[in-house]
Amino acid sequence: MREINERLKLIRQNLGLSQQKLAEELGLQRNIVADVERGKVKNPNFKLLRKLEEKYNINPDWLLTGEGEMYKTQKGGINVAEKLENAVEINYLPEVYAAAGYGAVNEDYPIIEKMSCSLEFVSSILNIKNPYNGVDIIKVIGDSMEPFISNGEVVVIEKTHNAHNGDIVIANINGNVYVKRLEKDPFGKWVKLISENPEYETIKLEGEELNYMQIVGIVRSKIRPF
User: pLDDT tens, 132-143?
Assistant: First the structure.
């Protein structure tokens, strides 16, 4: 069973709010929410419980004990418990980059901002085939994948180690992260990571070199900033 800190975090993610935004909407200081989520506070104060109940219909008994349902009742005819089961958590990594070029090196412990989206949105709009494997959003730097992916665009990744020929993948080679089109030998003897831009050479790995590469995921869609 989840602990109180995990249950509060689940509430916040289901609402699609950051710690700061949740605290603002409840009229509380951010540290009140943050301390509970970090496990520093085992028993949330009455004000937090009351405001969650009043504003979002959260069941205080569920938050305190894990018993019952997260929401006290249905709101506006929507079964929120069912809605939660159909929600998909997406990780936005604002400081993680995949290089359409010569490889990007990222921090070992990146900032992760989590958000919840409906299963229908993730499947239909973001084109994620199996959302429960995990979904990441990162930025692409470089022009080697133009015109398919341009420098500065944001891509939505379905996390999986299994990719097929022709897939645009995020590949990690010795800590360098690339976004490339995959081509692989059916017998597992070699892998090619191909750029869309002909000015860039294909990366070919074979033999023991294959041990240094890991497919992180498949690019399913992109977001162009304006």
Answer: 778 999 888 888
Question: What is the secondary structure of 80-127 as a DSSP string?
Answer: HHHHHHTEEEEEEEEEEEEESSS-EE--SS---EEEEEEHHHHHHTS-
Between CA 90 and CA 155 the distance in angstroms is 12
Q: Are residues 129 and 115 in the same domain?
A: yes
Cα 101 → chain centroid: 23
User: Which tops the pLDDT comparison, 179 or 68?
Assistant: 179
For 198-218, the pLDDT digits (tens) are 988 999 999 999 999 999 999
Question: The whole model's pTM is what?
Answer: 0.60
Residues 211 and 100 grouped into a single domain: yes
Phi and psi of 136, rounded to 5°?
-120, 150
Which residues lie below 8 Å from residue 176, measured CB to CB, with a gap of 6+?
99, 102, 103, 104, 105
The range of the structural domain enclosing residue 217 comes to 87-223
